[in-house]
Specification:
Elements (H helix, E strand, L loop, with lengths): L1 H6 L5 E3 L4 H15 L3 E3 L3 H6 L3 E4 L18 E4 L12 H5 L1 E5 L2 H7 L7 H6 L1 E2 H5 L12 E4 L5 H18 L10
Parallel strand pairs: 1-2, 3-4, 4-7, 5-6, 5-7
Length: 180
């Protein structure tokens, strides 16, 4: 949430989870840290309808959101489609969106593009190409954009190393000897 707030103005936070208590705790904690009103939605469509940015991080095996659930101009980041059979976003939503992934072949084999139409797979681009200016980003204000990384291992390693270094500098955390 702090990362999103560093990039965009966050006006409110809506959280949806299978466990309402967990959703409420997350909403309270992160709404307070961002200084924004926070609420809990009973189902994903309700959360997405009022959001400009939607982040999904689930174990879903069936799409949680369809094209009709997402307002024009919304950005979605789908973190849960990281192995075969997992799917957070429907084929019709992906078909009408600008889709960016970390690796097209991997995302097609086991990520968000696995259930997408061939035209969506061909139109998808990588974050690398987007950041290097070799691919266009959002073309219109009302275009729905999707970032759906599969999670390449080097990204996990880089993030883990940064978190470890920050914890070590702060003297936080617990040291575990994995070789003991």
């Amino acid at each position: 949430m702090r990362g999103l707030a560093a990039l965009r103005t966050i006006e409110a936070l809506t959280v949806c989870d299978l466990d309402p208590g967990r959703a409420a705790a997350f909403a309270e904690r992160h709404g307070a840290s961002l200084g924004v009103p926070a609420s809990v939605a009973g189902e994903p469509r309700a959360a997405a309808r009022a959001a400009g940015i939607v982040v999904l991080a689930t174990w879903a095996r069936r799409p949680l959101l369809h094209a009709a659930d997402v307002p024009p101009g919304t950005h979605l980041t789908s973190l849960g489609a990281d192995e075969p059979g997992k799917a957070e976003l429907s084929a019709d939503l992906l078909d009408g969106a600008r889709v960016v992934v970390d690796d097209i072949a991997l995302a097609t084999r086991m990520g968000a593009l696995a259930g997408a139409a061939p035209a969506v797979r061909r139109a998808a681009t990588t974050l690398h190409d987007l950041l290097c200016g070799r691919a266009a980003g959002r073309g219109r204000d009302d275009e729905i954009t999707v970032y759906a990384p599969v999670g390449l291992p080097w990204q996990d390693l880089a993030l883990s190393w940064a978190a470890y270094r920050a914890a070590a500098r702060a003297g936080a955390g617990t040291t575990v000897d994995l070789l003991a």
